[in-house]
Amino acid sequence: MIARDDAMNLLKEHVKEESLLQHSIETEAVMRALARQLGRDEDLWGITGLLHDIDFEQTKDDAERHGLLARGILEAVDLPEEAVRAIEAHNGEHNKTPIAGEFHHALRCGETITGLVSAAALVQPDKKLASVKPKSVRKKFKDKAFARRVNRDVIRECEQIGLELPAFIELSLRAMQDIADQVGL
């Protein structure tokens, strides 16, 4: 499988927006934490999280292609087919890829929660993840006006992988706090 450094270099070849690189690193952290929690392959899940939006800058105006174009990019590297399918499925409601199984749901909820947690950090006086508490994220989750573009239904897919929402929020927040220095939060 592709090494983490090689995956990061590949990501940087295709992603120039700093905020998207940060989102990718956050998603990697959440996916690694989920893999540890569920007893799955941490490297596989982490690299999948890191690369999940590798085609976003090319497809941001065409949601039906997002995730699908990634296949062409990722077929040139050593990434298992199950990871490529999960990357396609993370945008399944737009690109018509079937969403099936734990890995797909994990990537979908894992990448989506990062937006809510990051937004919760940005409203803190110091704008730091370290200041965010799980209870605060749970409260913001219930406030539909807060980070309104974050799809709460996709975050709730954590239940499809056996995690209740409060536990998933806490796991995700802790994972992102662990890499806060890498994403400037």
Report on the structure:
This protein is mainly α and 185 residues long. The protein has one domain: Orthogonal Bundle (Hypothetical protein af1432). 64% of the residues lie in helices and 0% in strands. The chain is built from twelve helices and no strands. It is globular. 40% of the residues are buried. The model has no long low-confidence stretch (mean pLDDT 97).
Structure in a nutshell:
This protein is an all-alpha fold and 185 residues long.
Shape type: globular
Strand residue percentage: under 5%
Tell me the number of structural domains.
Answer: 1
Low-confidence stretches are none
- CATH architecture identity: Orthogonal Bundle
Largest sheet: none
Helical segment tally? Answer: 12
Which fold name is given in CATH as the topology? Hypothetical protein af1432
β-strand number: 0
Order of helices and strands: HHHHHHHHHHHH
Provide the residue-averaged pLDDT: 97
Structural class: mainly alpha
User: Over the alpha carbons, how many angstroms does the gyration radius reach?
Assistant: 15 Å
> What's the level 1 CATH class?
Mainly Alpha
Report helical residue fraction. 55-70%
Q: Please report the distance between the alpha carbons of the first and last residues.
A: 30 Å
Features:
mainly alpha; Hypothetical protein af1432; globular; single chain
